[in-house]
Amino acid sequence: MTNYITIAPNNFIWEQNIKKSRFILNVARITSEEHARLFIDQISKTHDKASHNVFAYTLGDNNQIKRYSDNGEPSGTAGIPILEVLQKNELHDVVAVVTRYFGGVKLGAGGLIRAYAGTVADGIKAAGLVSRLTRLKLTITVNYKNADMLTYWLTSHDYQVMNTQYDTVVHIIVPVSTDNIPEFQVTLNDLLAGQVTFEIGEETFFEFPVK
Where does the Impact N-terminal domain lie (predicted)? Predict the structure, then answer.
């Protein structure tokens, strides 16, 4: 799999009111079907007085597992629209539960589809998405005089500073792709007149905001 996208937080809550009905989204990262079921059960118990607790989830690097439930809403008006939003956003290992407290005004099939899909789409947008990529952990060491210049250059070139450590010098850790390492080192050597050292660490997963 070349592109792994998920929600930025581990879990997130978002809600809106539509024609007097209250729609509450609880969305979370998951690692297994058991994890998904436990999350769904937890939300259903928390909102056991709600009219419906509708869910959908996708699991696996290639979304091999897909599950959904209308939980009493008319067939095809709730679970499938939620699943389609997850798929449209290319999300992996995510469960979404939308709780509905009925407000007395019927929405009709089309209105329900829009309400459930819209709640998930707007909630995911509010939560934010990240892309998980494989990168080398590169430690850049500079003196204090050059630390601000280096930090400014990194942020202005969209490099994510993972950690900064201070002792007699400054160590800044950033994720860099393997292919970019040589050019990256040459550029910073030129920028800092050679007053910089690099330590290439292990390859690991890093998460970058999806713009």
Answer: 19-122
